[in-house]
Amino acid sequence: MNTQSRESTSIAPSVKPADSAKTADSAKTAQDKAGTLIEALPWIQRFAGTTMVIKYGGNAMVNDELRRAFAEDVVFLHHVGIHPVVVHGGGPQINAMLSKLGIESEFKGGLRVTTPEAMDVVRMVLTGQVGRDWWA
Asked: What does each C-alpha distance from 134 to 63, 77, 88, 105 come to in angstroms?
């Protein structure tokens, strides 16, 4: 017969104050996520089964955290039945390369007016640097 006290053989872990704080943080995070999903549900239902074109702009590509969040959002859309198609931009990268090459950019109404000379640079940046970064 086992003579150990019930207290020493308990399989329930002891709860420390730090553990309580982690549990409270996890509960808050879960509540925040649930609130976001509840708010998004009408949109998810409306667009389920449709194709959604998303521009992934150059400014969102410059930070690892933004890249990860974007990828997670695209995966989420796929999982809820929306068919995302990503079209990538590259404005900051294009501007930097044009500047290095001494080619000026002209903008009208917020849109780049691209000369044939600049178009070669745009292709080079989007298929080289930006394309490589996106698929890496």
From this structure: 12, 18, 8, 24
Angstrom distance (rounded) from CA 92 to CA 107: 14
Contact between 58 and 94 under an 8 Å Cβ cutoff? The reply is yes
Report the distance separating Cα 64 and Cα 77, nearest Å.
20
Per DSSP, 13 falls in state P
Which residue has tokens 């394309």?
A: 131
Q: Which residues contact 13 (CB under 8 A, 6 or more apart)?
A: none
**Start-end of H helices in 14-63:** 17-47
Q: Are 82 and 54 spatial neighbours (Cβ–Cβ below 8 Å)?
A: no
The tokens for 68 are 């990860």
Q: What is the pTM of this model?
A: 0.58
pLDDT tens string 1-26: 555 544 444 455 555 555 666 777 78
